[in-house]
Amino acid sequence: AFAPLAWTLKLLSTRFQGGTANPSRKITGATLFNLGPVLSVAILFILSPASVLWLLADASALAGRMDQAEKLYIKAEPALEKNEDFIFTLGQFYFRKGDWNRAAGYYIQSYEKDPTNWLPEPLAKIPDSLLKAGRHEEALQWCKRITGQYTGNRHVKSRIERMKKEIVLSLEKMNRNVEK
Question: Would you say residue 121 has pLDDT above 50?
Fold first, then answer.
């Protein structure tokens, strides 16, 4: 991992120190060390062209070009619909965009594909997006389901319990506003 950096530093140090070593040999070495990762990425994109779309969509979303990102995600979705990481990314995208119902749908799809390998914060996105969508009862049901699935994980339990309190407080506030 550090070899390309080492070759580059060696090349630069030789050039700036006025060394007599042939820099073309060092450039060749740096190129060869960089060739492996570049070819790996090229092969990945050849084998999975939808990955290019996913990468471009992520870059567009990070740059704030949400409409362009959405078009690219939609274009990649048919090829990547079985990939739970991609589906989760769609949930993240729509959560960031404020489309809570779509975010919840994608989070739930991703969870259904593999409910066993989640960390506390991503798990909390399911009831959180449902809460933000105004689907309080469904959010509470998901809290119950998640804590049932992750009974031995105190971090998940703690995070989901905090989420559950937030949902209950939101329900109470909503009920108070209705009574007024």
Answer: yes
Prediction pTM value: 0.74
Look-up: residue for tokens 């489309």?
99
**Which two three-digit tokens encode residue 30?**
């740096």
Residues 56, 72 contacting (CB under 8 angstroms): yes
Question: What is the DSSP secondary-structure string of 17-82?
Answer: TT--S-HHHHHHHHHHHHHHHHHHHHHHHHH-HHHHHHHHHHHHHHTT-HHHHHHHHHHHHHHHTT
List, for residues 42-75, the tens digit of each pLDDT value: 676 676 778 888 888 999 999 999 999 999 999 9
Write down the H helix ranges in 114-153: 120-132, 136-149
Whether the Cβ atoms of residue 119 and residue 157 lie closer than 8 Å to each other? no
Cβ atoms of residues 147 and 160 within 8 Å = yes
- Residues of the chain with pLDDT > 70: what percent? 74
